Amino acid sequence: MADFTNNEFTVALNNYFKTLGTLAQQLVDLASAVINTAGSLLAPITKSATGLVGSASNTVTQVYQGAAAAIAPKK
Q: Which DSSP helix (H) or strand (E) runs through 74?
C-alpha cells in the first residue's frame, strides 16, 4: 500500500463507493419489481376470492330460504 499515491487511493475509494451505490440501487430495483409483481398477482386473486365469497353467501341464502319455505305452514 506504500506504492499508492493519494490520487490512486482516492480513485480506488471512489470506485468502491460507486460499486456500493450500484449494488444498493439494484437491490432497490429488485425489491420494487418484487412488490409490483406481488401487487399484480394479488389483484386477480382478491377479485376471485371476493366473487367466491359472494357466490357462497348467495348459495347459503338460497338454501336458507328453501328450508324456510319447506318448513313454513301451508295456507
A: none
The predicted structure's pLDDT at residue 4: 63
**How confident is the model at residue 65, as a pLDDT?**
83
Prediction pTM value: 0.50
Low-confidence ranges of the chain (pLDDT < 50): none
What are the two backbone dihedrals, phi and then psi, of residue 3, each rounded to the nearest 5 degrees?
-75, -20
- What is the C-alpha separation between 38 and 22, in angstroms, rounded? 24
- What CA–CA distance (Å, rounded) separates 41 from 62? 32
CA distances from 52 to 41, 60, 62, 65 (A): 17, 12, 15, 20
